Amino acid sequence: MSFEQAVVQLEQTNSKLQEEVVRFRDAAMGLNAIYSTITEGRQNTADGKYFSVPGNGAYMRLYRRQGSSAELIAEFPDRNELNSVIDQLGPLLGRDVTTGLNSFGSDSSLVRLRDIVYASRAYFGSYYSGSSTSGNVDLAKAGECALYSSSNEGVFPSSPGITFFWVETQSTYSGESLLQTATNYTGRSPSKARQWIRVCANSPDTNGGRQWGPWGEIYTSQNILGTVSQSNGIPTGAIIERGSNANGEYAKYADGTLIIHTAYKEITVEGNGSDGSVEFDLPTSTRSLYSNGFAYVQNTGGSAGLSNRGRARCETPTTARVRIVNEFPTSSTATMVLTHIGRWYD
Predict the structure, then answer these.
(1) pLDDT at 102
(2) pTM for this one?
(3) Which of 264, 266, 328, 323 is nearest to 300 (CA)?
(4) What is the torsion angle, in degrees rounded to the nearest 10, for the CA atoms of residue 36, residue 40, residue 46 and residue 49?
(5) What is the DSSP letter of 110?
(6) Which of 169, 252, 261, 269 has the fewest C-beta atoms lying within 10 Å of its C-beta?
(7) What separation in angstroms does the CA of 310 have from each of 262, 294, 301, 325, 329?
(8) How far apart are CA 183 and CA 49, in angstroms?
(9) How far apart are CA 340 and CA 53, in angstroms?
């Protein structure tokens, strides 16, 4: 190809590109030139230019005037027409079309275009689906988030006093692999937030039912401290409980450990190997027979003081007795406090 031929070809290409740009510009302008009828649009549009007419089952139709007629260039369907097409395609493809924002539950379902933004959240969870006060929480579908009554069918967290739970169910992998969270629901007045979680096995049991694990409470700064409790050795309350009264103070731990510090008591023991004892009332009950230790606070009489040869024994769940020996020749008086380390449940 000679240089002159290349120049001519380039000029022809530029001319075609310019025509396409002008046509595209005119078409875009035609979308903004909107008329109520084709006749009105043709009468008010220059020959070869574009105009638009809405309605008649379409969102918009783009026309180009061709003398005394109008050529249909493009048609833009409305939402109802798109949904109608999807509804017709569903049976042809052998798959269901979702009937609403809360009906996502199968990987084989078609999703309406208007719902596609919500599809992932609705299937995997965290999507509001109203109230299910009559539903079975064990049979909740992936994506459902609803308010349940604790009197409904299914297993709910063991928590006396809570009558409603907000339960979210989401898919974690495939099949029956699910994660559920349950949050205490409060009505007129605020309360401490409490939340529990449980998981469901991917494979059904021998009867084809779901295999849910037990509920476990999530601990936060709102429920670490409180009343400890247990059921068959499994903690069901707070992690740490602290209390005090006229008999002293105590700390209970979720694993069953109990630490008691009693109130001060004074004891006087004669000398030359005499012994004596003092009884302490415990600030809370214990299940342990022996105390792990006791301590002197100060001597208030006699120069030698008392020997710590002795032991403390819990005579009842709420009382302990400390026996003490004075090996020195003169009597002595001391103020004592008992430290007991035991268990509040076995």
Answers:
(1) 47
(2) 0.55
(3) 266
(4) 30
(5) B
(6) 261
(7) 18, 10, 19, 7, 18
(8) 63
(9) 90
